[in-house]
């Protein structure tokens, strides 16, 4: 405990003073005997503070007791002036430092109370001066005590300074972790997740550079992700990282030195092994040296990045399953219907936004299924889906509505958009050849035929646009059937 040494010095010195006076005045053991208690108190105070649940509070009590004891002892020494002034001041100062004016006033009262009580019990005696030698002894003791106290305070200030630096660093880490969480929530895919995460990390820790590498365990050459912020990796670093990724499973250590840079900085790589179910990866950091706080920070960032990546991969997989049609990869009916509901709301709100729909049905799928098998039918469906995708714009929502039915929603568009796509289909898809493999392995070509029906919210109420398009598609189908029948 920091106060042990100055307190032990102060009480031992006062004991020496007592012995000096006892010898000078011939009072002998009657003064020295009780003075021995002065030697005991620092140990008692130390044990009291060390054993207390709240040692700081116990030490504050000890400081009050110091004032009381010294007050009594100044009375015992008949108020030898230099001792009374220096010891009294030291008590006031100690209490002022830890508790301001309030504590100083209480300490002053305790000191005076102790002195007064002694005078009341034994009678007031005043002997302001003993000898020059004792004055020198007391003055030197006061100086040593003050210097010892200043040294203790210096040590404590340094400790506080270091704690502040550590707390500030931890705050930055905490802030960065929060930002990583926000970036992960906002990101729509793994690339933006890693990019945004590293940008945030670099903004919070501009003194470091970061890079992250992920690759799918089963297909390392196919699925890879990388992001870099505040760091330049040479071809040699990338080659080394590639090698590390390959041997990741056998490595035990979590952070390794990747390369010593020429500018005195170094590159360290922290492994994500065991944190991702389908991926392996490294977080690379450029830093002057790898100390304990940096290592702890890297572990936290690696954990957070890995958890965010894992969650995002799961989220994307679920989203895909929920939104996409398994055979064609187009949006499914559920997704289309929610998008249509949004367009219906958009039309009914002010300012109202029109939308259009184009329904399509592949002609003759049943016959293909019946004659060549369902796998051939599936090929016909996927071919139509692929070719439709070529002619749709990014804003069009193309979905597989049912078995052989497709639909396109044109948000914020009129019937012209549906007519434009219908005419592209008639020109570029209708009558085109499609190669399929039959159930008995034969390859044959079919002609693509589609019935179409478009409608928009400018010609029917928003709720009825889809059924109007559906009706028109069936009209088109009947018309085409009639035409085919007429042509034999
Ligand atoms: N191969 C395959 N066939 C499917 C799938 N979903 C639905 N079908 C079949 O698609 C056919 C759809 O029926 P219809 O619309 O009467 O078939 P169609 O021959 O195109 O008749 P029209 O539309 O009147 O020209 C049925 O035979 C369904 O079994 C699928 O995912 N794969």
From TrEMBL:
Family annotation (InterPro entries): Diguanylate_Cyclase, GGDEF_dom, MASE2, Nucleotide_cyclase, Rev_trsase/Diguanyl_cyclase
SMART domains xrefs: GGDEF (SM00267)
UniProt keyword terms in alphabetical order: Membrane, Transmembrane, Transmembrane helix
Enzyme class: transferase
Name the record gives this protein: diguanylate cyclase
Pfam families associated with the record: GGDEF, MASE2
Membrane-crossing residue ranges in chain numbering: 70-92, 104-124, 136-154
Lineage: Bacteria, Pseudomonadati, Pseudomonadota, Gammaproteobacteria, Oceanospirillales
Cited CDD domains: GGDEF
Residue ranges annotated for the GGDEF domain, each copy included: 353-488
GO BP, sorted A to Z: cell adhesion involved in single-species biofilm formation; negative regulation of bacterial-type flagellum-dependent cell motility
